Amino acid sequence: MPAPAAAPAETAADAMPMQNPMVGGAPMYAEKDIVDNAVNSKDHTTLVAAVKAAGLVDTLKGAGPFTVFAPTNAAFDKLPKGTVDTLLKPDKKADLTKVLTYHVVPGKVDAAALRQQIAAGNGTASLKTVQGETLTAKDDGAGGIVLTDAKGGQSHVTIADVMQKNGVIHVVDTVLMP
């Protein structure tokens, strides 16, 4: 029996969500919740520490659904020196919570739905975060999605549609600031 023909190459924009995609060297299982998957990603140790320090573990283990734009360790490293250490201090819990909840949107917004919102919005989509402020999403011109925060900072979605039992994670390359 001949080998099946190779599938045509896909762009990131056309690719279907992978079953159990690898993030930070670990498979992300759709039957696990956001926290149970994130703790296994070596690229998200800072985010996990911050979620614990802010007391958001139980929330992100809840039913949701949530859409989480999850900054990598490298994203946190882009912040000015000392910012992460300061935010992790107990007396800065409110500030840390504000930053983290700015990365969470209620509901399950996968990349296809986000692209539909961008198209319907004539090139931009406004996403109301759990924190209360808005993120703006646009097509980055190369088939990806870029988010703009309240301060004008931009973050690119580097891995989209990491499905969870209580939502979806989109990995981002920059911390968004309310």
What's this model, at a glance?
This protein has 178 residues and is α+β, with helices and mostly antiparallel strands. 27% of the residues lie in helices and 25% in strands. Helix 2 packs across helix 6.
Short key terms for the protein model shown above:
178 residues, alpha+beta, 7-stranded mixed beta sheet, two-stranded antiparallel ribbon, 9 strands
Output mean pLDDT: 85
Discrete helix count: 7
Query: Low-confidence parts lasting 5 or more residues at pLDDT below 50?
Result: 1-17
Query: Order of strands side by side in the largest beta sheet?
Result: 4-3-9-8-7-6-5
Query: C-alpha Rg, in Å?
Result: 17 Å
What is the strand tally?
9
Blueprint of the fold:
Layout: E1 22-23, E2 26-27, H1 34-38, H2 45-54, H3 57-60, E3 66-71, H4 73-77, H5 83-87, H6 93-101, E4 104-106, H7 111-120, E5 125-128, E6 134-139, E7 145-148, E8 154-164, E9 167-172
Helix pairs in contact: 2-6
